[in-house]
Specification:
Structural class: alpha/beta
Low-confidence stretches: none
Bound molecules: flavin mononucleotide
Mean pLDDT: 94
Amino acid sequence: MSDGKGTLGFYNTSDLREAARRRLPHGLFEFMDRGNDDEIAVRENRAALERIRLKPRVLVDVSKRSQEISLFGKRQPMPIIVAPTGSTGLAWYEGEIALARAAAAHGIPFTLAAGSMTKLERVAAEAGGTLWFQFYMWPDRSLSHQLIARARDAGFEALVFTVDAPVSTEREYNLRNGFTIPFRMTRRNVTDVLTHPRWLFGVLLRYLLTTGMPRYENFPAHTQTRITALPMGRSTALNATTTWDDVRELRKLWPGKLIVKGIQHPRDAVLAADSGADAIVVSNHGGRVLDSTTAPILVLPQVLAAVKKRITVIVDSGFRRGSDVVKALALGADAVMVGRAPLHGTASAGEAGALRALEIYREEIDRVLALMGCTCIADLTPDHVVMP
Ligand SMILES: Cc1cc2nc3c(=O)[nH]c(=O)nc-3n(C[C@H](O)[C@H](O)[C@H](O)COP(=O)(O)O)c2cc1C
């Protein structure tokens, strides 16, 4: 990142966040950036990563380095995965395709949220790369199973079943901002949008001139209609009756890799393995669902000890720096998911911004590996970190 050109002026992920904040309407930025309730978990995610310290080794030849990992038997050049973020298509016109293309260019998996503005078949056709599909169980399970069959037919390789939101959240700022999907004109919204013309012309009007008001394209028709427009982040399409039986059933239905996302308790990690999952994501949803949870990075060692390498363990929530990723890998995680940073990159400059977000992680991980005296991810051990 020496010449200041390829960087687009973004030197770290905070720069991307700031650019997204300026570009997006306030209500939309808050939806994309904030957490739930008092945002204790959001702060805790960062504080925990900051409290973990690195213990480098020196005088190792680190002139040749690789951050390649192998995930589900497939090599990927860097140890991160793009997390599912619903409504990415509101960050940028067809933002899901932009972000998926950036992930493909970096050779890492992109997870499409069922709550996308772009149909899953189009993302598969226009982005390529390694695609994972995330969903929540809908009250009518048969509709979810039909959706999963579509993802399978479109070539998605892994299914991510998010289990940490049996009911929807009441994020107060979303209610206050009144930003809804589908978008509904209110005086407050219209003022917000008019004062962000780049988003108005670059995103909203482009949809209006092509496919119409942006909506959850993968959802059953009745949840897409304007009459049911809900504040962002609120959904009627969640199922409070889901249990481990659903995971076992999905195991029978889904031929590819099955990943349970939103595990925070070591016992649930074991249950996921017992229920046939191939992997879990240790996650508190970036602090966006239940507040006051522990940072996933702090429960990671207990989870790893409990599952004893029976399944792949991915972690997310709060990873903003290459050094954060290195800390998780040193503790034994197989890979790290990143949510907000690539989303902010997409909101800042579309595919170029998403590419830059992933490039920042790549550059930082590379540098930190060298400074740690490691030439590859396998060199990292728990002895390289000091836990709080
Ligand atoms: C705007 C936004 C939308 C999200 N939507 C979903 C979703 O639809 N499904 C899901 O499993 N997780 C969703 N997440 C959570 C992410 O997958 C991920 O767990 C979280 O963002 C990780 O934390 P980080 O943003 O600090 O990297 C969303 C996160 C954000 C920021």
